[in-house]
Amino acid sequence: MNLEVPNLYENLNINTLPKIIKEEFYKLGHWMYSFEDVFFKPYFRVYEFNLDDEKIKFYAHENAENDIYNHIKNKQLLNENYDTITINDFHQEYLKEYGKGFYKGYINYSNELKNKGNQIFEPDNKQIAHKVFSKVIKERWYKIIEIFPFTFIPMQDKEQVKKKYNSNLDFYYLTKKKYKEAGFKSGEKYKAWELILHNPTLFEDIFIEQLSKPEPKEEPFTKTPDLNLKNIPKFNLQQRFYLFQKLNFDNGIHQIETELQKSKHKVLALIMGISLDNAKHLLNGTYKNELTTEQKEEVEEYLLLQKVKL
User: Fold this and answer.
1) Long-range Cβ pairs for the range 204-211 (8 Å, 24+)
2) Which of 22, 76, 118, 135 could disulfide-pair with 17, CB 3.0 to 4.6 Å?
3) Residue 6, CB half-sphere, CA atoms under 13 Å: how many?
């Protein structure tokens, strides 16, 4: 069985695309690491599997596997039985399922657009174009980064897994079912982008209409008053995190349910106003310097003076 998806870049001159379409497409390739924006060409990494009875070929973003490989390297990625996964396991068991789902989603989306059996009215090209646009562009206040998925170990199993591997690190697991489902969704979106990039004149007005922002109104300038920081101690980063832990806020961060790597680190970085790397090391207990007894006592003394009981 042939499960090969065509290359989206074939017969495509990316430089002739309308600016607004090219910009939206290239947003898929921008990744943020330690607050540094890095660009990878979207859907440029090809995955191929040549088996006896089937041939699988699909495309993903260049850095889609980065987090997976890091978790495998750190022995944090497990299968459904909570056994560690190797890179070979990932490719031979999970990426194959992803590829099968990708092909199915790609073909399904084409058929869905052609199928008129469930429609009351005959759709015109513009209506179909709006539907395709909605597949790739969704209004969110946050950015979805398309990576190969992984899931946090369920809360009820976390302690069991940490005890099994004698580690306080976060663990993640994969299932073949979720990989096939994720591949299906990615295949649909890939097909939608293929239609847009190869038929830009049909979509340009929709992109402009939906994404162009009106000129902002000039707001009157209001001066922010200086904050009085008198009697506020200048604790170092570890002391502030120690106070954060005493307030039990770190448990709230750990309990965040998310499939996006670094999300918990980003939330901590945002709250404490620190870099992503520092947030990661503080949360994982791998910060370069240890908090001294004297520094802890300074925090405890401040709480005592403020009559705060924790």
Assistant:
1) 204/18, 204/20, 204/21, 206/126, 206/129, 206/130, 206/133, 207/18, 207/20, 207/21, 207/24, 207/133, 207/137, 208/20, 210/133, 210/137, 211/20, 211/24, 211/137
2) 22
3) 11
CA angle at residue 61 from 56 to 196, to 5 degrees? 90
Q: Containing H/E element for 60?
A: strand 55-60
The sheet carrying 2-4 orders its strands as: 2-4, 55-60, 45-50
CB 14 within 8 A of CB 196: no
State how far the alpha carbon of 231 is from the alpha carbons of 23, 247, 294, in Å: 49, 21, 19
- Give pLDDT, residue 118: 53
Provide the CB-side half-sphere exposure for 222 (13 A, CA): 3
Tell me the backbone φ, ψ of residue 272, rounded to 5 degrees: -90, -5
Please tell me whether residue 137 adopts helix, strand or coil conformation: coil
The Cα–Cα gap between 33 and 276 comes to: 8
Q: Name the residue ranges covered by the structural domains of the chain.
A: 2-211, 237-305
What is the residue type of 201?
A: T
Q: How far apart are CA 254 and CA 283, in angstroms?
A: 8
Residue with tokens 């979106």: 189
Residues 6+ away with beta carbon under 8 Å from 27: 143
CA distance 91 to 179: 11
- pLDDT tens digit string along 72-123? 999 999 999 999 999 999 999 999 999 999 999 999 998 988 875 555 445 5
CA atoms within 13 A on the CB side of 226: 3
Task: Report the C-alpha gap between 39 and 229 in whole angstroms.
Answer: 40
